Amino acid sequence: MVKNEPEPKRKNKPRRKNKPVNPLKKKPFKIDIGRALELRYKNGMSYSEIARHFGVAKSGVHAILEKFTNLIREPEELEFYEKYKTKLLSSAELKILEKLMDDETIKGASLNNAAYAFQNLFNANRLERGKSTSNIDLHASLEEIASLEAEYEELKGMLED
């Protein structure tokens, strides 16, 4: 090496020795999130109890379930929603339909967006009532069978007379 030449600059920064480690990235937790939520909100278990149940750290359980705390404020609220979901969807569907019928909405907003929202609520409501496309076909078939049975009984009665 020649004495007058400057040393080449390092491209990489030196590593920090005491870099903090995120425990969530280090090893994935093996938690059934649905079961953990059930233990927390339905059974009232603490994060420590859930952690013991799954054999993981309390901080890991807290970090995973924390994402859901804003969604599930109170278990009773969720039970109420589940119990009245069909009525709530019908009510929301009606509000959107009313909004669709409003002249100001039609003039100022994209009708396509409003129709799309209505379609989604309608489909959610239809499915909640158990009227999927295959169920509708089944109901139509059952109605047809009932109609044919009634017609058969009527014709049978006419022949007996």
Automatic annotation (TrEMBL):
Extract the SUPFAM superfamilies matched here.
Answer: Sigma3 and sigma4 domains of RNA polymerase sigma factors
Bias class Basic residues marks the residues at 10-25
Q: Which InterPro entries match?
A: RNA_pol_sigma_r3/r4-like (IPR013324), UPF0122 (IPR007394), WH-like_DNA-bd_sf (IPR036388)
Q: Return the annotated region ranges for Disordered.
A: 1-25
Family indicated by similarity:
Belongs to the UPF0122 family.
What task does this protein carry out? Might take part in the signal recognition particle (SRP) pathway. This is inferred from the conservation of its genetic proximity to ftsY/ffh. May be a regulatory protein.
Q: What name does UniProt use for this protein?
A: Uncharacterized protein
Origin species, per record, is Kuenenia stuttgartiensis
Q: What taxonomic classification does the UniProt entry list for its organism?
A: Bacteria, Pseudomonadati, Planctomycetota, Candidatus Brocadiia, Candidatus Brocadiales
